[in-house]
Amino acid sequence: MFFTSDLHLGHERIIQLCDRPFRSVDDMNESIIGRWNALVRRPDTVFVLGDFALGSLAATLPLARRLNGRKKLVPGNHDRCWRGHRKVRPADYQRYVDVGFEILPEQTFHRGLGAHLSHFPVQGDSQGEDRFAGWRPAVNTGEWLIHGHVHGSWVQRGRQINVGQDVWRYAPVPYETLQVMISHGPQDLDWGSGRYAMTVVRPPAWLDTTRVPPGKTAR
């Protein structure tokens, strides 16, 4: 089982915005697909916590068919099946289903991890001020949250763990990795993002990241 967020497939500008180490949007798409399939096998389940693809849905959504595993989507603000999206239509919702996604509620509880799943953290953003206030998850004190949305802003803040692609070398995060992080309790973790993920600051010794494919360091 794996967790990931913020793939932004088909989104050329995200390469510049998040300093992603790819030469082009096609290079980014193919690299993300390759890293996913290097870890995920067909029987595995992958929770995608929002912002799967942008651009033309006709061009980007079919990329999901090339990804191994059973895919469960917790929609984010860039997904056209997110209820808060200004362009959401029933037909678009069906397009996600047609390429293999099971669409979950915007806040879901994962019993195995004992954690909430949401695209959004309770607090924090990738653009300074906290946007989408009405869609932030309701999480009680002491509960854990697995999320995306903040891109490279952090890896962990207290009991919030960011599984966004920009801090995990553009690969899904194994269930076992999140179990270990939760077992070590609330803390603040950062180790760089974009092309520098896990190179500027190394992950702590207790966290095994050997299953995460090595990242590119330059375009």
Briefly characterize the structure.
With 219 residues, the chain is α/β, with parallel strands linked by helices. Helix content is 19%, strand content 17%.
Would you write up a description of this structure?
The protein has 219 residues and is α/β, with parallel strands linked by helices. It has 5 helices and 11 strands. Strands 5-6-7-9-8-11 form a 6-stranded mixed beta sheet, covered by helices on one side. Helix 4 links the parallel strand 3 and strand 4 (101-103). The model has no long low-confidence stretch (mean pLDDT 90).
Short key terms for the protein model shown above:
globular, Purple Acid Phosphatase, chain A, domain 2, 5 helices, five-stranded mixed beta sheet, 219 residues, alpha/beta
Describe the secondary structure blueprint for this structure.
Blueprint: E1 2-4, H1 13-17, H2 25-39, E2 45-48, H3 57-60, E3 70-73, H4 90-98, E4 101-103, E5 107-110, E6 115-118, E7 144-147, E8 156-158, E9 160-162, E10 173-174, H5 175-183, E11 187-189
Parallel strand pairs: 1-2, 2-3, 3-4, 6-7, 7-9
Antiparallel strand pairs: 1-10, 5-6, 8-9, 8-11
